[in-house]
Amino acid sequence: xxxxxxxxRDIVESxxxxxxNFSTGRLSRAILLLSIPMVLEMVLESVFAVADIFFVSGxxxxxxxxxxxxxxxxxxxYAVSMGLGTGATAIVSRRIGEKLPKEAxxxxxxxxxxxxxxxxxxSMIGGFFAKDLLALMGASPDVIxxxxxxxxxMMTGNIVIVLLFIINAVLRSSGxxxxxxxxxxxxxxxxxxxDPILIYGWGPIPxxxxxxxxxxxxxxxxxxxxxxxxxxxxxKHRIKFSLKDFIPVPxxxxxxxxxxxxxxxxxxxxxxxxxxxxxxxxxxxSNMVAGYTxxxxxxxxxxxxxxxxxxxxxTLVGQNLGAGxxxxxxxxxxxxxxxNMFLLGITGIFMIxxxxxxxxxxxxxxxxxxxxxxxxxxxxxxxxxxxLGMVMVQSINGAGDTYVPMVINIVCxxxxxxxxxxxxxxxxxxxxQGVYYSIVVAESATALLGVIWFKMGRWKLQKV
Length: 464
Hints:
Radius of gyration: 21 Å
Number of helices: 16
Shape: globular
Strand content: under 5%
Low-confidence stretches: none
Helix content: over 70%
Distance between the termini: 44 Å
């Protein structure tokens, strides 16, 4: 009975916030305290895409298609944001482990400034070339006409995505994962409320159609960012902002950019390969893209909690290396990997058994449901590999080694996934199924190479 009471106490502490020192104590408890809010945070992050698809699907297949094509392009923004978050995580977690919170705060502020600078470039490109970008992705004239404003709004407002990712990465890596979770509670609640109002209209508010989803998402995330800054300037958490922290510190910025480049490259490699996959699938028609888009949203929804566990491993690796405990860092990664594989393995079984059920929750068009179910079923074969690869790669990143994962991604996604997808789908005429099988093969290769490198242990010697 006492064991269950202790478990419940730990769950409550993890959600409400903890002052736990993650370089001491039981590793299982440390993983639990970090992973619960991180998993909930990732679930909430996935709700943005799922909510948009859910409400937009009522408009029709063209609206779903433009959301899918735009999200594929937006993955470049996510890649840069996650790359900056990776660099910030490596530095902040190491400084926290070394018990240097002031230096951690300075690094966090510098990462925010770098993120804002980069986001301005995406805003200009998206604002001026939305129609051209959709055409480049293979959208039909009808899709472009109906949805280009959605693309322009999402790209122009990308700064809120960049800041949300970076600051939440900072909070997680400092050990304040519960705060990141609360930020997304606020952002998602606003998005879900605003989506149907702005898409379909309500009272004096006009119906913006598919563009309404972009306005709702950008507004929800923007208020979430304001909430982040309010919390960090309140001086009540491990990371504390002051205005002078935003004075440029070239040494810290260079270190941050150096680490982030590897992280950005990792994510750009992955996301550019996903764009390539969408481009291949678009040759099979709008219904195929719509079905694949919904399947991908479900996949993201189920994988993001696993990213939460992977982020917990990254934080534990960084903080324990900072505290001079490399073996504890390694154990934290292996324990997290086993938990992740178990949970995603169960999830994969459900996806394989009943893919039509999950697709039909989003759209009723029989053709789209059938195509989406086929995509979800095949991609779900790789769930256990996805789980293992995530933890291994994020653990290496958490140690400050962002370049080896970059090389792994180049090999697996550019040299294996894209050529294999083209060969299977176009040359050998397996059509869209060839694309889906290439995803499973590439992710399995990522897990294998990640395990091999992690076992070699060179990441333990990484200086940050």
